[in-house]
Amino acid sequence: MYGAEKAVASAVEHCSKEEQGFVYDIIRQNFLVGNTGSMTEEERQANISLGMKKAEYAAENFIPEDSRLPFLVAMESIAKLASAGLADIIVIMVYG
User: Fold this and answer.
1) Residues 6+ apart with CB under 8 A from 32
2) Is 85 helix (H, G, I), strand (E, B) or coil?
3) Hey, is 56 helix, strand or coil?
4) Among candidates 64, 70, 82, 74, which has minimal Cα distance to 19?
5) How many whole angstroms separate alpha carbon 39 and alpha carbon 81?
6) CA 30, 69, 84, 81 torsion: positive or negative?
7) How far is it, in rounded angstroms, from Cα 89 to Cα 96?
8) Averaged pLDDT, 7-23
9) How many C-beta neighbours within 10 Å does residue 95 have?
10) 15 φψ region: left (φ > 0), alpha (ψ -120 to 50), beta (else)
């Protein structure tokens, strides 16, 4: 997981603060949703899927070309862990 976090950080390193915020908001709002108890499993999976669509948008619009593939692979890894219900582990790994 550390590799995924490092790839994301590297990909957004030269982006604006707004673009960096957009990417980290994807992780917080779509992958690491704090209160999933009020969501159905279908809603949770749809939210994760939406996060990947946002990540694809970021990759196409402001992630440097040489970082796009590692960025998308990293975001997909985080999404897969979130999809498997491992959000607590992700929070600890990404945010300490």
Assistant:
1) 82, 87, 90, 91, 94
2) coil
3) helix
4) 64
5) 17
6) negative
7) 10
8) 96
9) 11
10) beta
Q: Which two tokens stand for residue 94?
A: 């990404």
Tell me the pTM.
0.82
Which residue matches tokens 């980290």?
A: 24
Q: Which tens digit of pLDDT belongs to each residue from 51-65?
A: 999 999 999 999 999
Q: How many residues can be counted in the chain?
A: 96
**CA-to-CA separations, 24 to 38, 41, 45, 61, in angstroms, rounded:** 22, 23, 18, 16
Q: How many angstroms separate the CA atoms of 26 and 29, rounded?
A: 5
CB distance 10 to 23 below 8 Å: no
Cα 27–Cα 69–Cα 2 angle in degrees, nearest 5: 50
